């Protein structure tokens, strides 16, 4: 079970959130939005990979 | 195995709540990732059992019926997963469309057996 993966993603998300807050407070809203977007894209890419694996496994197991 | 799954589920829920409190905008994507990982674990754990069930020798027709039943189970699980993911991301329209597609596909797979049932019922009433 990928407990490490979910904790890593949580860690990355927390770092991204903190960096976004700091940048917003420093008046750099655009950069803050960019960092937030990068974080979301990273998680989205991981999700797409795992969804692909899951669908492939469902195909193999149930013969779809 | 159950304890691992329970622990993992609670961990995902807690970290998801923590991220929403911190204001991470991709919190829903994160919780969807957690759902995918849980289901990956579940399908990989029961995959061997389901493959063995599909290879059980119960005659030609029985084997085909078991395969169809497992196919229907797989379709229902895949569609309900996709629908829940869409619902989690607040896309109710997409979720409803996915459920509809799943139901139609299940109907298509079970059509030969429905036809057999109808012809059996017709023969039964013809003989009475």
Walk me through what this model shows.
In chain A, 89% of the residues lie in helices and 0% in strands. Chain A has helices spanning 3-25, 29-62. Chain B is an all-alpha fold and 128 residues long. Chain B is built from four helices and no strands. In chain B, helix 1 packs antiparallel against helix 2 and helix 3 (60-88) packs antiparallel against helix 4. The N and C termini of chain B lie far apart (54 Å). The mean pLDDT of chain B is 81. The chains are: A mainly alpha (64), B mainly alpha (128). The A-B interface holds A 1-3, 5-7, 9-10, 13-14, 16-18, 20-21, 36, 39-40, 43-44, 46-47, 50-51, 53-55, 57-58, 60-64 and B 4-5, 8, 11-12, 15, 18-19, 22-27, 29-30, 32-34, 36-37, 39-41, 43-44, 46-47, 50-51, 54, 67, 70-71, 73-75, 77-78, 81, 85.
Instruction: Please mark out the parts of chain B with pLDDT under 50 across 5 or more consecutive residues, or reply none.
Output: none
Shape of chain A: elongated
Report helical residue fraction of chain B.
over 70%
Total strand segments of chain B: 0
Interface with most residues? A-B, 34 and 41 residues
* Average of pLDDT of chain A: 84
Structural class category of chain A: mainly alpha
The number of helical segments of chain A is: 2
**Which class do the helix and strand fractions of chain B yield?**
mainly alpha
Radius of gyration of chain A: 16 Å
Note the gap between the termini of chain A.
24 Å
- Helical coverage of chain A, percent range: over 70%
From the N-terminal CA to the C-terminal CA of chain B, the straight-line distance is: 54 Å
Beta-sheet strand percentage of chain A? under 5%
Radius of gyration computed on alpha carbons of chain B: 20 Å
